[in-house]
Amino acid sequence: MSLKLGSNDTAILAGSSVVKQMLLGSSPKFAAPVLDHVPGAAAAYSLRRLSNAYTGPVVKVRRSSDSTTADFTAAEVVDGTLTAWVGAGDGFVRTWYDQSGNARNATQATAGYQPKVVSSGVLVTEGGKAAMRFDGTGDFLDLPASLDASLWDNSFTLFAQLKYHSLTGYNYLLSAWGSRDVTIACFTTNSIRFNVFAGSANAVDSFALNAGDDYVFVYTRSKTDGMRLHNNGVQEDSNLSTVNASARANSNAIGARYAGDRNDADYSLKELIIYPSDVSASRELAEGEMAWHYGLQSKLPYNHAYAPQAIGGASQTVPTDSDAIAYLAAVAAADGSAVERSVAIAIDDFVKGLKADGLWSAIGSACVLAGARTVAGALVPLKGAAPTGYNWTASDYSRSLGLKGNGTTKYIDSNRANNADPQDDQHIAVYAASASTSDNFYYGSDGIGINGSSGAVLSSGDLLLASRGTGYATLSGKATATGLIATSRESSGSFTSRVEGANSDTAVPSATPTSQKIFVFCRNDSSSGATRFVDARLGFFSLGQSLDLALLDARVSALMSAIGAAL
């Protein structure tokens, strides 16, 4: 793909049928709406214009003051015409017009079931863009019978942009119950499910959701490749089922299973586009255009074709450190998709910072237990041998904060022995996003009082730290400490501890290191293995030779803050 300079200080990426236009030094934008890039939709609904050629209304609204209805174009929705017509009351959607040219309008004749587009004289918006609010107590739109078995029995793709306000109900986004049992709904709290029911069994894709988050969903059903579900550019699930769905006798709907049934949708919906084919080849283009229009481009994976840095602009950056790039690629392989650009840049900055401070070479093993999309990605080593995780589930993981132990069974084997480094040259560090509530080990190679062992354990309100010595340091009142908890030994006579942003030196002679591997979230007892588990949440750990703990603390704290801000 080549980069050409156009007129009016505009750069244009050419080399395909797609033209992406950006003002130099500013945020890029697409030159045309989504249907101009990916035509051929079976039905297309939005409160904006979806193609430059479309000149008709996007919505018919009923005003609460006298139940009069009127049509409005995309421009009239946002330029004040709609709200001026509605007045101080509310405006409800009577018809959501199909912009595909197929006249498959979504309608709702019953006033009590109409989603709201104007509330007390103010346009309903999410993220600064017009939206229609399904209130969770009955709102839905009927879809015409012409969206029939000929579509649902073959390949199709559905794009949607919405925000869920509650995830306790069915929250149907779309149901093809009228001709085939094809549904997209929550079904269970905090998840979405793309379901094709073949009469005796379900073909299902699903993934977890968060109320209050914005999503660009893509649901693809291919008669040759099966089903796939993407969320903000990330493939969340897939299966190989190509079965036809069983027939149903009711109606197609947005916001309900069918007319008046399970109509508890509680979300703000801005856009819904259905293609009568598998448009996977253009998926990134379509979801990229939607993400940029709705201000969600930062949620795209950093290696997405339409992520911010892929399009350009003076402020856009990509990871450049070779070790960071290799790590991010391994995380993407484990997760099934790359992380967002902002997370990738946080990792890149972290690795560069470690190298600039002279810390990287001292680290033998390290894991960033946050930022990745899955537990598997969180256990990918930043450096050194891959750790082994035991008994972790998705519910234990927070992308912004890390893994949370349960105090009984969950731990990580670092696969690095306590004696892997010279006797008087070792550091161990963990970052606690939340402290343990029990007197147990953040990490350890054996009991805290055993000569040559290493560990960090809570005891009666205190924090005890050992670094291959004949004794240990007692940090009084530090049992609730969060942030970096670390030791570094660089002499035979003493070692340094760092807790709550402060260093302290303890005169404890070194001893021959024990040979057990270091466990995280517990200790590795020489006779019984993993014991004394904490229920803390940890976002990072590292092991290796001695280093400057203050510098490490600053870098890890900055990394965790950057990941938290990114997510």
- The DSSP helix count reads 10
- Share of residues in helices: 10-25%
Could you tell me the number of beta strands? 42
Please indicate the count of domains: 2
The CATH class assignment of the largest domain is Mainly Beta
Indicate the mean pLDDT: 90
The geometry reads as elongated
Evaluate the radius of gyration: 28 Å
CATH architectural type of the largest domain: Sandwich
Low-confidence stretches: 1-28
**Main beta sheet strand tally, sense and closure:** 8 strands, antiparallel
Q: How far apart lie the N and C ends? A: 31 Å
Specify the structural class.
alpha+beta
Instruction: Enter the CATH topology name of the largest domain.
Output: Jelly Rolls
**Percent of sequence in beta strands:** 35-45%
Task: Give a nutshell description of this structure.
The chain is an alpha+beta fold and 567 residues long. Mean pLDDT is 90; it is low at 1-28.
SSE inventory with pairings:
Elements: E1 2-5, E2 10-14, E3 20-23, E4 28-30, H1 34-37, E5 43-46, E6 59-63, E7 69-72, H2 74-78, H3 81-86, E8 91-96, E9 106-107, E10 116-119, E11 122-123, E12 125-126, E13 129-130, E14 132-135, E15 141-143, H4 149-152, E16 156-164, E17 174-175, E18 182-185, E19 191-197, E20 202-208, E21 214-222, E22 226-231, E23 234-239, E24 252-254, E25 266-275, H5 283-293, H6 308-311, H7 322-335, H8 341-356, E26 363-368, H9 375-378, E27 388-390, E28 397-398, E29 402-404, E30 411-417, E31 426-434, E32 441-444, E33 454-459, E34 462-467, E35 473-475, E36 483-489, E37 495-499, E38 502-506, E39 517-520, E40 523-525, E41 529-531, E42 537-544, H10 549-566
Antiparallel strand pairs: 1-2, 2-3, 3-4, 5-25, 6-7, 6-8, 8-9, 8-10, 10-11, 12-13, 14-25, 15-24, 16-21, 16-25, 17-18, 18-19, 19-20, 21-22, 22-23, 26-42, 27-30, 28-29, 29-42, 30-39, 31-36, 31-42, 32-33, 32-39, 33-34, 34-35, 36-37, 37-38, 40-41
Helix pairs in contact: 7-8, 8-10
